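Can't attach files on this board, so I'm pasting raw text. These are the components:
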Amino acid sequence: MIARAPRNLSALLVLGIPLLWIVVFMLLPYGIIVTYSFWLKSYPTFKPAFQFGNYLTLLTDVQYLQVLGRTLKISILVSILSLGLAYPFAWWLVFRCRSQALRTWAYMAVIAPLWVSYLLRAYIWKTILGTEGILNSFLMSTGLISEPSSLFLYNQFAMVVTLTYIFIPFMVMPIYTALERIPLNLAEASADLGMGPVQTFLKVTLPLSTPGIAAGFTLTFCLSFGDFIAPFLVGGPDGNLIASVIQTQFGAALNWPLGSALSIVMLIIVLAIVSLSDRLEATAHTGAA
Amino acid sequence: MAAIIELQRISKHYSKTIIGVDDVSLDVEDGEFVTLLGPSGCGKSTLLRMIGGFEAPTHGMIRLAGQDVTHVPPYRRDVNMVFQDYALFPHMTVGENIAYGLKIQGRSRAQARDMAVDALALVGLPDKIDQKPAQLSGGQRQRVALARAIVRRPKVLLLDEPLSALDARLRDQMRIEMKHLHEKVGITFIMVTHDQEEALTMSDRVVVMEKGRVAQDGRPQDLYDQPASPYVANFIGTTNFVAGSLTGRSPAGTRIASAAGDFTATADLALPQGAEVTLGFRPEKVRLLAEGETAANVVPGRIAEVIYYGLGLRTTVELAGGTQVHVDCLLPDSLARSAVPQPGAPVRLGIEPHNVFVFAGRVAA
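---
Top answer:
Structure tokens for the assembled complex are below.
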């Protein structure tokens, strides 16, 4: 027993610190938020209570449902656009790119923006899409338009483009990994058994890469769902997303209980998506294991 | 019988200096079981992949049942392959794997399933149709891969090192089963292996490859008894080599002198007198002569080592001139064991002339 004690102590130290971290910085804040969500607003502060008024407001006030709907729409569009761009790219990298050096460089080119400040990456699109921006100058120089258009910036289109640009690495990485794990000879076996390239893709490559698609979709969806910088920078008047509303509730509106309730609703949606994709991955895995 | 596969001067050059297959011509008869045998890197797998359509030759022509298929993609070739690690689709059941190539042939779902059931019965796995490949053992996966490839009744079945992933006992069993399967289905089999025993036991014909070329092509017994080169003699079975020179011809055969003594060989090479040659003989075709016994070729030596391996003895004998050769003999009963030679003892080796190979030139043995 005496010999055991130090080992228990070191185990406690090793596990204790991360545990403490999780409790103090995750569980405790969640607990506080959940508690707040039942409180009452009493301007300029709030008072403890246990009532569902905040949640009821969210469900009945069209304004919040609209924002929620818009956020879902933007996140889904971002995920679909990212998938549409990332999948062919990852597929090309894994199956068609012959040069190892080119593959490494192309992959790094996608990942590298992650090292650049998030704010800067969002800001770039302001300079591209703005009235004085690169896109307008280009279109004017080609003569397609005669004067700068303000159609590109401060709308949902700008948000989708910006968020796709920012989060696409999170779609490329899991899909690349999933595709890379597919043995090359499976495609050969499929061809051997009479299937052309398109059928081989649909029957072998695509089903075997679904775990990667699910993971990428979940990541980009959840990240866009909680984003509040892009709406702030490129969103414009009709670009309010749920995260910016939460920010307002905790800031200018000074309605922490409502903000908390909104955060909890958002958390539930994200958790639902994550567990759904987990299940999808699990079914794909029992097949692929 | 018609040739189902004709390879006409096939080459595969990866670059100017890297040559995978070098000018190979080969005909395979319909229904034959042909094995491409050689060490890794000899081009045998590349050749097989070219027949399957997975790689295109840089020169030459491949004909399948008389049709030029050199540049026909695999999915339009009436050839199927059993891949080295089976390449079963992990997301499909055994039945779906086997039926995979049938729907494209215009078979209905029910028909495809019936054919999959039959194919599974043929390979001895009738009850696994609804399992996933991950639930099967290595041997079972191999059978599924076989079933998937033969169910389409291709003109030719290609097998890429089909037994290399199995353990020794299962491998022995599958050898026999695959040979029986070949007889049952009557499809032409072309197999690639580096295992000479596998090649000898399973095939009608063995093509020994060396550095992208065909070193020798023949029936297993011919390859073993009349190897065309020291390479073949050493790759198939074991051969003792003794350097010598041709001294003349007699009615009994070719006379060869060596540091170990004089030999007579039945084999005759069109070489001038005095030409450098290499003699070869199999360890099991040499006898340790008892006192008073004699043979057409008698070579004196001294025993260097005796190794007992259950079935018999492998004796290493040092000949005059320093060459060491192996002699294998079976131990028929306990009596023979008392006559086990002892290291250091002088012996005489007896070799019959028809068991002596003669190769032109010298090899580093």
